[in-house]
Amino acid sequence: MVQDSIRFCLIRTTHPGNIGATARAMKTMGLRRLYLIEPARFPSDEVTSRAANAGDLLDNAVVAPHLSDALKGCELVLGTTARGRKIEWPTIDPESAGRLLVDEARLGRQAAVLFGTERNGLSNTDVEHCHQLIRIPTDESYASLNLAAAVQIIAYEIYKYAAVSSSVPGTRARPKADAKEMQRFYRHLREVLHDLDFVKIQHPPVVLMRKLVRLFNRARPNREELNILRGILTAIQENLKPSRHGRK
Amino acid sequence: MVQDSIRFCLIRTTHPGNIGATARAMKTMGLRRLYLIEPARFPSDEVTSRAANAGDLLDNAVVAPHLSDALKGCELVLGTTARGRKIEWPTIDPESAGRLLVDEARLGRQAAVLFGTERNGLSNTDVEHCHQLIRIPTDESYASLNLAAAVQIIAYEIYKYAAVSSSVPGTRARPKADAKEMQRFYRHLREVLHDLDFVKIQHPPVVLMRKLVRLFNRARPNREELNILRGILTAIQENLKPSRHGRK
Fold first, then answer.
1. Integer Rg of chain A from CA
2. Which residues in B lie closer than 8 A to residue A224 (C-beta atoms)?
3. Would you place residue A184 in the very low, low, confident or very high pLDDT band (cuts 50, 70, 90)?
4. Do residue B219 and residue A224 have CB atoms under 8 angstroms apart?
5. Using alpha carbons only, what angle is made at residue B57 by residues B51 and B58, rounded to the nearest 5 degrees?
6. Which of B91, B138, B240 sits opposite A239 (nearest CB)?
7. Which one, of B55, B4, B53, lies nearest residue B32 by Cα?
8. What is the pTM of this model?
9. Which residues share a beta bridge with A114?
10. Can you list the alpha helix ranges (DSSP code H) found in chain B?
11. Between chains, do B24 and A144 touch, taking CB under 8 Å as contact?
């Protein structure tokens, strides 16, 4: 799996809950390689409980004393940031980052994404390891993205791009009604509206039918749905007062 | 701000921490309107602490006894799901949902996104309020997305698209029927089908209605179209044989 060439590195994480939530966020998107650089508390019960069933990622997590240990063998390193930084650094958005990481992984290269502390993000020294920064867009008045939420967004963009070309199965949809079947339905509907004397001054027949055709065309009924609608029309005809004119 | 026309509705949320984390996730993406339907515990200290500095969203959150109260005035309702569902429902990805929601908001319409319980997601009854479902892509072997993480992804896709261009698209569309009007129409339709004795072995009443709801939700009738449909239903009732039971 292409995701196995991408590692996520949490640097000096303060809250154990964020480590657990990170493991869970990664696993939902098929990512498994978690590195922890100087975590404040690990392992801990809070880490495990927030990880839900992603405990396997914690069991296999690599705890590293220095960032450079965690980056061994990586040919691409991206850092994350939610705000503008004082030091200028080439910056991309999460979507471009997803593409870049997956493309690198497909070329057989190892890549890493760095996440800084809850309070201050990445330090300038951390940033110096990065080829580029990923700037997660946030509202100007409140950029306080939770650490695991940032992980979730990046993981999601990686998965989105990784899943595209490996062909998504997709729901096997029911066949839509074809044009001929729709025409037959509209003829039936027109007949019933006539039987009901449903022609009013506000709705001249042609305009009325056009509006109904537009409505049902928009819904694009499948064959089963069209059969239900036709069945209802037939039931109406069978149950009308005999006094209604124009009926066979 | 366009985000002010989009509300997020958390339904029967069990863990207070998820409500706080949701408020924070929303606020980072400029969303402010939080609705809580039957929350297990709210307000609570855990909610507040996980919200970080997004307490204003909690102060202004609307606690509603029923989902239909929370959807008052909404012309577009989207539900979220991380797995395939037994009942088929039109499904889009988070990116398309972001576009759809922002486009609706720019036309001056109110829209809602529904998030179900931590354990089971949205119930079938919840889904019947939805025009479409948003399927958040996840790894096949582990779809256990945290509730606030799902909120973060959808909020992020909304913000991404809202930030791109703040220009208004052209067509001033007719107002769509809102959730309440749709419910009234479905009640009327159910009544007519009952009058017609339109219940067959192939179509148990609940399944039949669900299929019709799905069809008409997909079409998203505007108010005029809904009036035409309601007019047809009334005309049917007025013209049924007097022998039909169950009629006033």
1. 29
2. 211
3. very high
4. no
5. 70
6. B240
7. B4
8. 0.80
9. A9, A79
10. 16-28, 45-50, 55-59, 67-70, 94-106, 124-127, 147-164, 179-195, 205-219, 223-238
11. yes
- Which A residues in the span 18-77 are in contact with B, Cβ-Cβ below 8 Å? 21, 24-25, 27-30, 52-54
Strand order in the sheet with B33-37: B62-64, B33-37, B6-11, B110-115, B74-81, B132-135, B91-92
Contacts of B159 in chain A (CB under 8 A): 137-139
Residue A48 or B164, more confident: A48
Are the Cβ atoms of B24 and A197 closer than 8 angstroms?
A: no
A146–B88 CB contact, under 8 Å: no
Give the per-residue pLDDT at B76.
94
Residue B134: name the closest of B158, B108, B154 by CA. Answer: B154
**Structure ipTM:** 0.79
Contact (CB, 8 A) for A58 and A20 = yes
What is the mean pLDDT for each group of 10 consecutive residues in chain B (248 residues)?
96 97 98 98 95 96 97 95 76 95 94 96 93 94 95 97 63 74 93 85 76 89 92 92 57
Query: Which chain B residue's Cα is nearest to A164?
Result: B137
Single-letter amino acid, residue B150 = A
Residue A59, classified by CB atoms within 10 Å of its CB into exposed (0-12), middle (13-18) or buried (19+), is exposed
Q: Which of B107, B118, B109, B127 is nearest to B151 (CA)?
A: B118
| Structural domains of chain B, with CATH | 2-164 (3.40.1280.10), 179-238 (1.10.8.590)
Structure confidence by residue, pLDDT tens digits, B222-232: 999 999 999 99
d(CA A155, CA A29): 6
pLDDT score recorded for residue A247: 44
